[in-house]
Amino acid sequence: MEQNIFDTVILGGGPAGYTAALYAARANFSVLLLEKLSPGGQMATTDVIDNYPGFPEGVNGFDLAMQMKQGAERFGAKTKLAEVVEARLSGEIKQIRTKEETYSARTVVLATGARPRELGVPGERELRGRGVSYCATCDGMFYRGKTAAVVGGGNTAAADALYLSRICEKVYLIHRRDTLRAQKAYLDPLKRAENVELVWNSQVEALLYQDTLTGLRIREKLSGEEREISCSGLFVAVGYLPETELFRDQLELSEAGYVKADETTRTSLPGVYAVGDLREKPLRQVITAAADGAVAVHFMEEYLNS
Ligand code: NAP
Questions:
Q1: Do 295 and 227 belong to one domain?
Q2: pLDDT, tens digit (0-9, with 9 covering 90-100), for 184-242
Q3: How many domains in the chain?
Q4: Is residue 87 classed exposed, middle or buried when 0-12, 13-18 and 19+ CB atoms within 10 A define those classes?
Q5: In a 3-state reduction of DSSP, which class is residue 232?
Q6: Ligand 1: lining residues by beta carbon, under 6 Å
Q7: Which of 9, 117, 267, 303 has a CB 3.0–4.6 Å from the CB of 105, allowing a cystine?
Q8: Pocket test for ligand 1, best of 163, 190, 238, 281 (most atoms within 8 A of CB)
Q9: Do 171 and 65 share a domain, yes or no?
Q10: In this model, does residue 1 exceed pLDDT 80?
């Protein structure tokens, strides 16, 4: 496999990457998908996805990821679990290097997504795994029957707070403003959850800990008042940063670091497509990521046949 020139190498196995793999393999192109950890990306860390059509009861993110992988592999796409350390994207034949191998490809699909943004309070990195987490569905069970806090006001924070409310005795949802930016679908369930306390206009000033997290010092921004709350888990959900380090010097990026590509997913380099959360776009959802993957292959076909 390593000696071939692939029609396409796809970097990242989230919904965008696996949809591109499905469409490309089904169009009879040779497809290699490289994934660092395990299929699914952020989607795999989501407990229930309610807004991906075709699943009237919702679907677990990890299960959906495995189904997307199987769907692509049914048509011959290959997955390799390997971390990409270098991507040379210019020229007709592109080179993708992992720690073990170098792969050649006529086209490359960038689907590396985004990683959670840190809150930036002292001790946050040291306490990762000892009270601080960036994934409620991965780590929530460690706080069963305990008190946890979620910071953020977007869909992730709202979904995390709801998920944790079913596991933890008490959940604080701490947001720096007085309205959530999360979709309305989350608001009523959050208000109804008796063990969720919404803490508005507040920010985390300090992490309190001995060996593990014991609480937070938070400051109410309007009054300036500070108070301490006890909790053994802090779930940071303050957005994501695009994973573009490997190719940021080769492609046009937006000010925030997202890859510039319009609805065609074509980037500033011929034969290179940006799909999913790393693309500059107005709505980042599983369905828009999947749609990007399909669109990329439409334009890839044009490129490969020309
Ligand atoms: P997001 O929408 O960017 O929201 C980040 C939140 O963190 C905002 O409320 C922001 O506050 C707050 N924040 C940012 N920096 C902060 C800081 N330093 N201190 C305190 N708070 C800070 O991120 P997200 O919720 O992770 O969502 C990311 C993308 O995934 C979105 O496109 C979202 O729609 C999508 N997503 C969708 C679903 C779903 O549809 N079910 C679920 C999860 C994620 P401000 O509001 O004041 O800016």
A1: no
A2: 999 999 999 999 999 999 999 999 999 999 999 999 999 999 999 999 999 999 999 99
A3: 2
A4: buried
A5: coil
A6: 51, 119-120, 151-157, 159, 176-177, 181, 183, 203, 237-240, 284-285
A7: 9
A8: 238
A9: no
A10: no
